[in-house]
Amino acid sequence: MQKKLITLIISCLLFHSMVFAQPISDTMRLSLPGAERMFLESNLLLLAQRYQIDAARAQIIQARLWPNPNFSIGHGLYSGQLQKFFPSGTNDETTAGLSQLILLAGKRNKQVRIAQQQATLTEYQFFDLLRTLKYTLRTDFFNIYYLQQSEKAYDREIRALSQIVDAFAVQQARGNISEKELVRIRAQLYSFRSEYNDLINQIDDVQSELRLLLKVAPGRTIDPVPDSVAIGSLDPARYPLNTLIDSALQNRTDLRIARANKDLSKMNYDYQRSLAVPDLTLSLGYDEAGSYLNGYYGIGASIDLPFFNRNQGNIKAARAMIGANEVTQKSTEATVQENVSRALQRAFAQDKLYRSIDPAFFGDFERLMHEVLVNYEKRNISILDFLDFYDSYKQNILQLNSVRFNRVSAFEDINYYTGTNFFN
Fold first, then answer.
1. Crossing angle (nearest 10°) for helices 107-173 and 253-275
2. Exposed, middle or buried: residue 252 (CB in 10 Å: 0-12, 13-18, 19+)?
3. Is 21 helix (H, G, I), strand (E, B) or coil?
4. How many separate helices (H) and strands (E) can be counted in the chain?
5. pTM of the complete model
6. Which CATH superfamily groups domain 2-76+85-418?
7. Nearest-angstrom CA–CA distance, 59 and 266
8. What is the pLDDT of residues 96-146, one digit of tens each?
């Protein structure tokens, strides 16, 4: 009976790797290029930001418009002499006026340039959002894939261990094995199930974020299909650090935003200085009978006298903002260079770790698993030693997937920090 029990356990473990989960009916298999196309076509945040660009461009049209002329007309309401409302004929009085505001000191042109710069800034913000969301998309894509590989390892181990527990429970009831041995295996199974549940929750969280990015219906499962050949060919030594930094300084959208803000602050300073110059109002007037002669036509001009308010506070604030934005730009440039340098350093470290793993290592582990089973059958090792090796196998699978993801993530960091897809 004991020999049949051991044979059953060995059979379960030798063939458990061939047992796979039932396919999910509502699963979307998706390559990385396909995911990026879906993202560009359907992401709601990008769509909202595109409307912001349209709104900013409309402000350029608004800035180009001239102030509207002002027309006024007046007529006598009541004549005390005639005791009559709205007198007419020789006893009425009608006035009319037409005025036009003339912007001086190039205010209109400055407003147009500011609106154009703000539209450019909005476009940079769109591309910066695109860069950030695309980075999230790609890292989520690879994260789900490698987490799913770990999930499969857990699923295989749990299925096999469950079969062993069921077989041991029958034999323990017959008195062929001790209760202590059964409890030990059950404890290992419960530990695996708890870890498996945590892993599933982690996958579901990343799946949820990816569904939002792709506008996929809730409840659908995304099954990433990466290009293993492209992943294997990733090499951090392909591009020197100076090339990566130069690309980042030219293409990083957050740096472009910092530069645009500095230019915008200079434009605003010029505009605030122009506001210190009063605007001119030209006017035409007509008075039917209220002037020194009847049927009076007149022309006039008016302008504020800049004695008290010369926009001093706004000019000083605009000058200060130039300094603040210049410092912000320098800080962003330093951050960009450090980001790129650290990302490349991390990529070298992760790639070195990945390539230090012998490709035959996990094949050897499978062979050792078989030998452990044989030795357990011969009672050369205890059930505890067997389970320890079992747990070690699981841990190594998890570590390998973690190393693989960290390596790919390091190259994605380079793409993100340089603003260029050097590695695809």
1. 150
2. buried
3. coil
4. 11, 8
5. 0.83
6. Outer membrane efflux proteins (OEP) (1.20.1600.10)
7. 19
8. 999 999 999 999 999 999 999 999 999 999 999 999 999 999 999 999 999
